[in-house]
Design brief:
This protein is 4% helix and 37% strand. By secondary structure, the protein is mostly beta strands. It has one domain: Deoxyuridine triphosphatase (dUTPase) (Deoxyuridine 5'-Triphosphate Nucleotidohydrolase, Chain A), CATH 2.70.40. The strands form 4 sheets. Strands 3-6-10-8 form a 4-stranded antiparallel beta sheet. The longest helix has 7 residues, at 73-79. The chain is globular, with a radius of gyration of 19 Å. It starts with 5 loop residues before the first strand and ends in a 32-residue tail after the last strand.
Length: 158
């Protein structure tokens, strides 16, 4: 049996609720790209510290899809709370609990979260599987080998 099917609203993702008292991921507004994920536990993330929290769900993505765990912009703006490995990647073959690695970037104030608080967003996307082919030379491009910061855009330069 396929782990997903397509419908008018998008791709159907099979989900296993690991914590029956918490809500399934949900979109806050029509057109939102990310569905909210909640924490399964009360946690205090101290200044500059990390915490790994569960979301109470496991999912089955179809081949050709991945889910990406993104920070919530409101938490980042208000508290400095973000994700260490943003976005975190959930591969199609993974069947364990979706967990979130939080990081408090504030240098002075701890962030207190309660069980059921929204902590991240889950974005499901189609992904291509690359076929890597080694070559002696790469084709030319306008950008060439310019790397970090090569396109400018920041006034503070040395």
């Amino acid at each position: 049996m396929s782990s997903a099917s397509h419908n008018a609203g998008g791709v159907e993702i099979l989900i296993r609720r690991l914590d029956p008292d918490l809500p399934l991921p949900a979109y806050a507004h029509p057109g939102d790209a990310g569905a909210d994920l909640v924490t399964t536990e009360d946690v205090v993330v101290g200044p500059g510290q990390r915490a790994v929290v569960g979301t109470g769900i496991a999912i089955a993505l179809p081949e050709g899809y991945a889910a990406f765990v993104h920070p919530r912009s409101g938490l980042a703006a208000r508290c400095g709370l973000t994700l260490v490995n943003a976005p975190g990647t959930v591969d199609a073959g993974y069947r364990g609990e979706v967990r979130v690695t939080l990081l408090n970037t504030d240098q002075e104030t701890p962030v207190k979260l309660a069980r059921g608080d929204r902590v991240a967003q889950l974005v499901v996307q189609r992904v291509e599987r690359a076929e890597f082919r080694e070559v002696e030379e790469l084709p030319e491009s306008v950008r060439g080998t310019g790397g970090f910061g090569s396109t400018g855009g920041h006034a503070a330069r040395s």
